[in-house]
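Lecture 7 notes. Example A: sequence first, then its structure tokens.
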Amino acid sequence: MCIRDRLKNKHGPIVARFLERFGKIRESLDVWRNLGLSPDRTIVEEAATETVRILGSMKDTQMIFDNFRWIAQASPDVAVTLFSQPLEAPAPDSFINGFLPTIKDNPSLANFLRENYLETMVLAKGIDDERWHSTLGIHYIETLFRLRPANSDMTLIVSDSHFAQIQAYLNKFRKFLRHPLTKYRGRTLLEKISNSWLLAEEVFLYGKEGEHLSALRKLIKHREFRMAEEYAAERPGKLLTDLFKIYMDVYREARRKLSERPKDEKLAQAMLIFSNQIEELLRKYATHPSLDSLVVLELIPDDWILEKDGFLMKYMLAASDNSMSLKRNAQISSTLSQMDIMEVDARLAKSKQATVRVTFDKVCDFCMKKIGEKAFLIYPCLLYTSDAADDLLCVDLGGRRIIKK
């Protein structure tokens, strides 16, 4: 480095701050931009940091973009700190659709800036416009599918570093889906991940959209029976009953086709699988309020044998005991409520029967004067004149008050 460059790097920051102090913002930014070309990494980082600080209080979008470009190329990590500044510009449309497309020679940099900008605007600042929430979600999906194609086999072996990258973006996407500030369109994201390896996320979005039957069918299609049962059991309504109906529909269809093609091993296996799932469902959730025993008994095939120690008999006994227990509890609760009402009525009747006899000899318990013709207050068993009660601040004037004329 020549002497001139050393002097420039040494005095440049001083000159830039001097110009900024006297309102020469554009000239100050030019000095910092020149310092950003220095081979000294420390000088470059300082120039980028100071430029971001100045840009954070500016409203001129074009000036922001002109200076942000060199910062992004020289120090991307410093550049993205601009997004967290309380600046009014740049707006999402101008940054995403206007500025980023101009960085054609470095797609990875543009993608890095896009991701950080959207994350800051959506997750940190909670921008109201739904478009950018959905845009961030789509960005995560597209990034995941670049790392692992949508229709790829989940058993595909990848390197540890590649797997770590996939997992990092998957965690980001899952956090985004559940973040309290996000306002994305679930249907838009569902269209992007439908029939992909993002099964858990697809099911979550179905649930967020209230399409619980679609979620259950998706899980059953992928033979994720445990997930389907937990999904149905954890949500309100009769989803376990709906799950039972789906199991029975698949079982009956496989049974019907097997009667036409008795040698089809796949149909026989499918019928056995769903028969086992029905048995497991009834065994685990016999007393769960989401599983309607009347629907179960109505849909059970007539030719299923009711054995003494069989799962069907055990289910019927458990469901019957639970139903009787619920009925008894309801009756007990109703009886207790009626007793409480009767007790309150009795207290009220007794209170209404209470009388107070006031003679000319009765005196106020506060001032010890005879009540005579004065209005008086009963609280709760002491007598006060109205004047004494008004003076006695600790007396609860919500007590029974009788005015004698």
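Example B, a different protein, same format:
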Amino acid sequence: MDDNVIVTCGKNHLFFWNLEATGTLTKKVAIFEKHDKPKYVLCFAFAFNGDVVTGDSNGNILVWPRGTFKVAQCIANAHDGGIFSLCVLKDGTLLSGGGKDRRIVAWDMAYQRTGLEAELRETVGPVRTLSQGKGSMILVGTTRNCIMQGTLDLNFSPLVQGHTDELWGLAVHPHQLQFVTCGFDSHLYLWDVLSRTAVRCMDVGEQSQCVTYHPNGDLIAIGTTKGKWLLMDMVEQKVIMEENAGSEIISCIEFSPDGRLLAVASHDNAIYVYQGDEASHRYSRLGRCQGHTSFVTHLDWSEDSTFLQSNSGDHELLFWNGAQLRQVPDASSMRDTRWATQHCTLSFRSSGVWPDGADGTDVNTCDAHGDILASGDDFGKVNLFHYPAAQPKSPCYSYPGHSSHVTCVRFLHDGARLISVGGKDTAVMQWSIVS
């Protein structure tokens, strides 16, 4: 290969640049001659003999011999749809990765098929990039936030998996080292804490905003962006109930500690309360709590499963008798109530998480375990406070990591780790709590 040659590709162009001794660049435009000029040249690679090999949006592989800018060989319809990646392995084999067909094809040094190829599952998405891994391993990056590892004669397995759209829902298992996440990509992931891998991925068919575990750990409830909530049996891996709670976004959803009641908070300013039947795992609506003048943002149940506290978009803190569906007007009477969770960012015990100059939307989430309160904010930070954080602008430790707003934080049941999820960065992070 020539050290003074640079190749660039893109929309309607493939250029060969030569770096002259004077330090200037001269450009040669690729000549396709009788071959169809593609709208996009999507990728290229250098073969061991110096050939430039390109993949384009027509699904063709073109070979440009060293020192020339004319096509010497065309492999037409190498893939069904665009070729997004080419990779030359250490033994000279050329790999091509297709987008539409999700296939990885091997070619020998004469650009003939070797007979080895693989097709990725639809759930992991089309090929976006290929790379040589350790030994004979091949690494494949996909359009659905997956990195796959494997060989063409064996199966590919996920090395990294993740969500592909904005991520909001997070819930931890009540007594196992597992948690679930959901988001706008309509997928629910079950994660194992110790291996830090996705155990299961399920398509719930709806963009999801929030999720919660039943105290028994076998059921989860998912709130969607269109007013529907789903009850899923995690043992059977199927949705066993669907119910509408208004027609707007379900912003948060929580089971009572005894599992008998389910509170579903909506952007229509109401909290819908459902009562469950233990035998059938069916929930029927008791009614709704009305009193907020803006959309509900956070919910907590009391330890005795009697009361609710809730926040709203206009920064209210209201209290409710969950079973009677009545607001508790005397807030001071609730000051000594023991809460099963601390998800309300505006409360007697969490008001100190708000920084100086906050506009009321900067802190998106919080959770407590023991004497530690964690929060997530719009600045990509996870913050740790002493709990309760009742004083304004309470001191904290702040930890960067996310490149987008932190949408949810939750402690695992043993309090040894904290899970955080980001919105636009779709990242799931695991933090160890070090005393």
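Note on Example B: The chain has a mean pLDDT of 94. The two ends are 55 Å apart (CA to CA).
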